[in-house]
Design brief:
There is one protein chain. The chain has 5 helices and 45 strands. By secondary structure, it is mostly beta strands. A hairpin with a 4-residue loop joins strand 25 and strand 26. The longest helix is centred in the middle third of the chain and has 10 residues. It starts with a helix and ends in a 13-residue tail after the last helix. Potential negative modulator of chondrocyte differentiation. Inhibits collagen fibrillogenesis in vitro. May influence chondrocyte's differentiation by acting on its cellular collagenous microenvironment.
């Protein structure tokens, strides 16, 4: 509070505990603390509020009514799981909102109400699985929407309605493979769309045709194998990225309806050649680097077209051997020969999507929206699942009824249904074949029911199901065999049940699973082979269980696991090499609130620069191992750990002083150091070697990224990492 005290004035006295208030600039910083609620003593005239690294879980309705002048709000890394409807109501001046790196799973229609001036909304790195149409309807000033690195599979029609001035939509690093034809229909000002690193198997031409003004489209890193005739009709498109896909062929007139196209990036595909690209008269550059180009006579028409159209081409021959490595622009037509002329194989085009079934009448007491293809019978005191919804229904909301049982063939004629909500329906039995015929279903929500078991055929007939939410039910074991019919399953929620163990075979059939949520159960044991089927697993959340040791054996064979949560398990000691199976992939490790008493000096063996965040707060150990090789850290939380600040802790003291992070480490003993920050304690001054200096002493000869940032900060330059510049 030194800055607030120096500034003086009545407002300075209102600065919340553990925060720094700069009243001259109307800034308040409450970084990497232990706040569990939005402080109610923030000065009313505050314009910029930085709350990164706290633990809010829920942002309640009207949480910021006391600060109506806010223009910038940063809530990164705050463990937020839910935004209540009206959470930001009253922030009519806010222009920047950062909610990155939280655990938000669903955006409701009123979650972002009241943000009429918002220009940038950052939601990167959450676990958003579904966006309800209307969620962005109150953001009429938004220009940038960042939804990267979430868990989206499907975008419904009109999902971005209301974003009249949006210029850049970032949807990279999701799992999108279904886009409604009208998904982008309400974005008249959009100039850039990022869809790279998704699961699109075909170019979504109909959805993209609504973007008349977009000039740049990123579709790289999608498993697209073929670009069909006139597949892309974007009148203003100038830059198209289709790099690192799975392209094997491109139709001659694929881009004929995008007359402004100037740059086409086709790097790192499986193309042996291209035809002359008819209609792409404005094209200036084509990049084909990293393709297995066959520079035979079959490539001559394309090569001649390049010369006639004066298009610059980047790429080199992979065959025949005599031309291997030769650049395309160095070839002469006579060199491109064939021993035997054979017509190229016909490309395999993606199968056509079935046409929508005709609309029917809406069941009595329910609401059907033909514009959004939604049906809702929420909280209608129904005892049986209604029928006769329109055949083109995409989202069906049946929450808060009393069905008890879901019978076979419960949803006839709904072949286009994508999202089904059955939360809080008192369901005890999901009978075999209950979902039969739901061939397009992606999301199934069965939260807050009374399910204790599932028949192996419970999910038969829903092969596209990717997100299954079974939180808050009565399972005591993982339902064995239930996932055999779900080849597309990506995310499985089994949190807050009563599961006691993970046994071998429990996850059989879940080969594509990426996110497994098991928090809040009673798991005591995980069999060594229990996770073996889930070789693509990226996130494993086991917090709040009864594990007494790190399940090292079960973590073997998970080469993609980047996030592991073991918080709130009664693990008292960690031995050597407990995380070695994850040495090549782990980035985020949660070990907080466990009562941890001892960490072996080599417990973190194998881990290092890849680790971005490490949570060790609220434990009982008095020392921690040397972590000087954790050079990529962006978050380190050591709050509420009873450190004994003697000479054995000197390496930690020195290392913390090289970091440009606020870590919260405090001395518990000896008595003269109690309550002091580890980095500020004077007890280390009597230790041997103290006079040799602080920075770099813990690991001579190595300079961490964090220490470089700290040096730049001291020299007046901006640090490389700006996650938490306040110490």
């Amino acid at each position: 509070l030194w800055l607030a005290a120096a500034l003086g004035g009545a407002a300075a006295t209102r600065c919340p505990a553990r925060c720094v208030c700069d009243n001259l600039r109307a800034h308040v910083l409450c970084l990497n603390g232990s706040l569990v609620a939005i402080p109610d003593t923030i000065p009313e005239l505050t314009k910029k509020l930085d709350l990164r690294g706290n633990s809010f879980t829920v942002i309640p309705a009207r949480a910021f009514l006391a600060t109506p002048y806010l223009t910038h709000l940063d809530l990164q890394h705050c463990k937020v799981e839910r935004l209540e409807e009206g959470a930001f109501r009253g922030l009519g001046r806010l222009v920047y909102l950062n909610l990155a790196s939280n655990s938000i799973a669903l955006l409701y229609q009123e979650s972002l109400d009241g943000l009429s001036s918002l220009q940038q909304l950052i939601l990167e790195g959450n676990r958003i699985e579904e966006i309800q149409p209307g969620a962005f309807g109150h953001l009429g000033s938004l220009t940038v929407l960042d939804l990267r690195a979430n868990a989206l599979v499907y975008l419904p029609d009109m999902v971005f309605q209301g974003l009249q001035v949006l210029r850049w939509l970032r949807l990279s690093h999701n799992a999108l493979h279904v886009l409604g034809n009208e998904a982008f229909a309400a974005l008249p000002a959009l100039r850039r769309l990022s869809l790279d690193h998704n699961e699109l198997q075909a170019l979504p031409g109909e959805a993209l045709a609504r973007l008349d003004g977009a000039t740049r489209l990123d579709l790289g890193h999608n498993p697209i194998t073929y670009v069909a005739e006139e597949a892309l009709a974007m009148a203003s498109l100038r830059h198209l990225f289709l790099d690192h896909a799975s392209l094997q062929d491109v139709a001659p007139d694929a881009f004929a309806r995008s007359p402004q196209l100037r740059m086409l990036d086709l790097r790192e595909n499986q193309l042996q050649g291209l035809p002359p690209l008819a209609g792409a008269g404005g094209l200036a550059r084509v990049s084909l680097d990293g393709n297995p180009l066959l520079c035979s006579c079959l490539l001559r028409p394309f090569h001649n077209w390049l010369a006639r159209a004066r298009v610059q081409a980047e790429g080199a021959c992979a065959a025949p051997p005599a031309l291997r490595g030769r650049s395309l622009d160095s070839l002469k037509p006579p060199e491109m020969r064939c021993r035997r002329l054979q017509p190229p194989p016909s490309p395999i085009t993606p199968s056509e999507r079935p046409r929508a079934a005709s609309s029917g009448q809406c069941p009595r007491g329910c609401i059907c929206s033909p514009d959004f293809h939604h049906g809702s019978c929420e909280n209608r005191d129904l005892r049986e699942i209604p029928r006769d919804f329109p055949g083109d229904t995409h989202l069906l909301d049946l929450r808060r009824n009393t069905f008890r049982t879901v019978p076979p063939d419960a949803f006839p004629g709904l072949k286009e249904l994508v999202s089904l909500h059955l939360q809080s329906c008192g369901i005890r039995v999901l009978q075999p074949g209950a979902l039969r015929g739901l061939e397009s279903l992606v999301y199934l929500y069965l939260t807050d029911n009374n399910l204790s078991t599932l028949a192996p055929a419970a999910f038969e007939g829903a092969p596209q199901l990717a997100y299954l939410d079974l939180d808050h039910n009565a399972f005591t074991h993982v339902p064995v065999g239930a996932f055999q019919h779900l080849p597309s399953l990506i995310s499985l929620h089994l949190q807050h049940n009563a599961i006691t163990e993970l046994a071998e075979g429990d996850l059989a059939g879940a080969q594509g699973l990426r996110w497994l949520y098991l928090a809040g159960n009673a798991i005591r044991h995980i069999a060594p082979a229990a996770l073996a089927p889930t070789k693509m697993l990226e996130k494993l959340q086991l917090e709040g269980n009864h594990l007494v040791e790190v399940p090292t054996a079960a973590l073997r064979g998970l080469p993609a696991l980047s996030e592991l949560k073991l918080s709130q398990n009664p693990i008292k000691r960690m031995g050597d090499g407990v995380f070695l199976p994850l040495a090549s992939s782990l980035q985020h490790l949660y070990l907080d609130n466990m009562g941890l008493e001892q960490i072996s000096p080599r417990a973190f063996a194998g881990l290092g620069p890849k680790i971005k965040s490490l949570y060790l707060e609220s434990n009982k150990m008095s020392n921690i191992p040397n972590m000087s090789n954790f050079t990529g850290l962006e978050i380190l939380n050591l709050q509420d750990v009873p450190f004994h600040c003697d000479c054995q802790l000197l390496p930690l003291h020195r290392w913390i002083n090289t970091l440009n992070l606020r870590v919260g480490a405090t001395c518990e003993s000896p008595a003269e150091a109690r309550g002091l920050k580890v980095k500020l304690s004077t007890t280390f001054q009597t230790c041997p070697g103290w006079g040799r200096g602080e920075a770099g002493e813990a690991n001579p000869g190595k300079t961490t990224a964090a220490s470089k940032a700290s040096k730049k900060k001291r020299s007046g330059k901006s640090p490389v990492r700006a996650f938490s510049k306040s110490r």
